[in-house]
């Protein structure tokens, strides 16, 4: 009887899901119903290991990102002041910017830090210059200093001597002053004024081994130094994590109170400089019954909580940067040790990113907070196994499907457009429950300017399980053109997907030149021309699309003369 009941349940669930997916869905995009400008919140990336920046695959990936973005991309990395020989390792890096001589006098060396920033500036990118971590010569608890963490080892083992407060806050302030002054001399004041500077990373967890009050002091000295060296540049913080779970005492809220009204440890005055606010937001995937289940709700709740804290503070009009905005917390934890991270190689990462980033715009609008950027903490891991399951944009110089979502976002210009989409999962439902059961997020996000209308569509579900494709009709209305060209870009199991090609090769860890070229080509964004210079009537154009599960498509309608 139990087996029979279970079989009936399976049939009912499959029938319900199939009926939903096979019912044609209509999405209407009104090119005349323009909303707020589409800020390029996607154009922010980051990673732990700064020395990857100027290595072979790191330089290649930076060049690719810079090439598809028409606006400057901001890049954030840890360990810019960490002591060491510049050797890269998982969750580790160093620049050796600060040492001391035998008499305890500061010795500054900007060579490695310059190599990192040079790689950005030469490509038209800009740093989010993270002021951290603590040099060994200044740490109150210097030994052990360097960690040797590996996937599968307890995460807390990374919090070694670099995470401690300084022995001398004045020396800390002078270090920051000399660094910023050097950057002004090397790159020019106008360039440095276009950067963001921030103090530390996630000081409300193990990344900071001091008290909150000691962090405020660290911030005060650093912010004062930045403004003395380059008054026009932007300083921010606290880059704390987990607004959604930080309920008992909000680190973010207390930091804002300090900047507004408490005594500045460096100057003795009231308050501290603050030009923007940053916090982090993470999702929470799990591995259940042999498959990955994502959870977008926790990430969105983090963003909402953080924005509400800002909205209710004296700094409600300052811009916000979500300093790390990801499906979960450990980029360097591969799927071998963390099976819940198996989503990272294929299209589930792509559809999650498309769906979650689109909701950031909704949160900004509903809270009234200016979200300037959302840093995808995903770059690349040099000299690591192919498709190991790191949270990265490329593996061994070959792009993963998720990078193509950012290529799509980069092509969306102008203002947001009104969409009528009854199939979309309501925002409140996603925030409370994510996307579960027979429900699928058949979402859409549109933007347009005087030359084009673009709509991104996705077929997302939390569970990484097989599901039917979905029939969609896109109805474009009030297009200001008599002729159009329509281009379709696809990310699915067959296109823009080097991972599936690699698996068909037999998942080789030794790739020959011919295979590499094939993988490299497969990683690029696939596109096809649907119609070319087609006449339309009354500004209307309809397009039918079959959208696979976890697929992300972009339609660009170009206006012809």
Description:
The protein is α/β, with parallel strands linked by helices. The chain folds into two domains: 2-36 and 413-560, Glycosyl hydrolase domain, family 39 (Immunoglobulin-like); 39-411, Glycosidases (TIM Barrel), CATH 3.20.20.80. The chain contains 13 helices and 23 strands. It has helices at residues 2-22, 56-68, 111-121, 169-187, 189-193, 212-229, 251-261, 296-311, 347-367, 401-411, 427-433, 498-504, 513-522, and strands spanning 25-37, 44-47, 74-77, 98-100, 106-108, 126-131, 196-199, 234-240, 276-282, 286-288, 291-293, 320-326, 371-374, 394-395, 398-399, 415-420, 441-448, 452-460, 470-477, 483-491, 526-535, 541-547, 552-560. The strands form five sheets. A nine-stranded mixed beta sheet has the order 21-20-23-18-17-16-1-19-22, with helices on one face. Strands 2-3-6-7-8-9-12-13 form an eight-stranded parallel beta sheet. Helix 8 runs parallel beside helix 9, helix 9 (347-367) packs across helix 10 and helix 12 (498-504) packs antiparallel against helix 13.
User: What CATH architecture label of the largest domain applies?
Assistant: Alpha-Beta Barrel
Give the tally of structural domains: 2
Question: How is the main sheet built?
Answer: 9 strands, mixed
Level-1 CATH class name of the largest domain: Alpha Beta
Rg from Cα: 24 Å
Spatial separation of the terminal alpha carbons:
68 Å
DSSP E strands, number: 23
Overall pLDDT = 94
The stretches of 5 or more residues where confidence is low (pLDDT under 50) are 1-20
Form type: globular
Strand content: 15-25%
- What is the count of helical runs? 13
Organism: Danxiaibacter flavus
Family: Belongs to the glycosyl hydrolase 39 family.
InterPro entries: GH (IPR017853), GH39_cat (IPR049166), Glyco_hydro_39 (IPR000514), Glycosyl_Hydrolase_39 (IPR051923)
Protein name: Beta-xylosidase
């Amino acid at each position: 009887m139990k087996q029979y009941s279970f079989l009936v349940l399976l049939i009912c669930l499959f029938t319900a899901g199939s009926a939903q997916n096979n019912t044609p869905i209509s999405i209407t995009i009104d090119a005349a119903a323009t909303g707020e400008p589409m800020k390029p919140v996607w154009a922010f990336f980051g990673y732990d290991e700064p020395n990857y920046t100027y290595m072979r695959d790191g330089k290649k990936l930076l060049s690719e990102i810079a090439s598809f973005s028409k606006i400057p991309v901001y890049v954030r990395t840890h360990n810019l002041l960490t002591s060491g020989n510049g050797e890269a390792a998982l969750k580790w890096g160093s620049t050796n910017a600060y040492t001391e001589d035998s008499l305890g006098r500061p010795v500054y060396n900007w060579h490695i830090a310059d190599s990192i920033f040079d790689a950005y500036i030469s490509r038209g990118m800009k740093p989010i210059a993270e002021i951290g971590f603590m040099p060994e010569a200044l740490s109150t608890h210097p030994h052990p200093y360097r960690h040797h963490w590996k996937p599968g080892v307890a995460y807390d083992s990374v919090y070694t001597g670099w995470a401690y407060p300084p022995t001398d806050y004045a020396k800390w302030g002078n270090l920051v002053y000399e660094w910023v002054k050097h950057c002004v001399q090397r790159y020019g004041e106008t360039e440095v004024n276009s950067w963001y500077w921030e103090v530390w990373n996630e000081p409300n967890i193990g990344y900071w081994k001091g008290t909150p009050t000691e962090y405020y002091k660290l911030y005060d000295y650093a912010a004062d130094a930045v403004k003395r060296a380059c008054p026009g540049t932007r300083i921010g913080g606290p880059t704390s994590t987990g607004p959604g779970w930080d309920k008992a005492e909000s680190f973010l809220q207390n930091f804002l109170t300090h900047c507004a009204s408490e005594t500045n440890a460096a100057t003795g005055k009231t308050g501290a400089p603050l030009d923007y606010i940053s916090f982090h937001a993470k999702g929470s995937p799990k591995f259940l019954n042999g498959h990955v289940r994502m959870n977008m709700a926790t990430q969105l709740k983090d963003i909402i909580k953080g924005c509400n804290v800002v909205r209710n503070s004296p700094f409600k009009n300052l811009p916000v940067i979500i300093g790390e905005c990801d499906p979960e917390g450990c980029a360097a934890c591969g799927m071998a040790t963390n099976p819940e991270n198996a989503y990272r190689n294929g299209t589930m990462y792509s559809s999650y990113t498309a769906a979650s980033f689109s909701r950031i715009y909704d949160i900004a609008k509903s809270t009234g907070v200016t979200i300037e950027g959302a840093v995808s903490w995903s770059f690349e891991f040099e000299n690591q196994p192919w498709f190991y399951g790191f949270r990265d944009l490329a593996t061994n110089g070959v792009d993963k499907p998720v990078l193509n979502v950012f290529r799509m976002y980069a092509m969306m210009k102008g203002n947001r457009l009104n969409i009528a989409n009854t199939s979309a999962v309501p925002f409140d439902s996603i925030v409370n429950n994510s996307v579960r059961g027979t429900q699928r997020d058949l979402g859409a996000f549109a933007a347009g300017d005087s030359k084009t209308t673009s709509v991104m569509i996705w077929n997302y579900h939390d569970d990484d399980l097989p599901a039917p494709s979905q029939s969609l009709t896109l109805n474009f209305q009030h297009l200001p053109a008599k002729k159009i060209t329509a281009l379709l870009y696809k990310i699915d199991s067959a296109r823009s997907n080097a991972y599936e090609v690699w698996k068909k090769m037999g998942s080789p860890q030794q790739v020959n030149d011919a295979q590499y070229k094939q993988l490299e080509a497969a990683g690029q964004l696939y596109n096809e021309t649907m119609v070319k210079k087609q006449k339309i009537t009354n500004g209307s154009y309809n397009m039918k699309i079959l959208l696979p599960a976890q697929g992300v498509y972009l339609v660009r309608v170009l206006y012809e003369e």
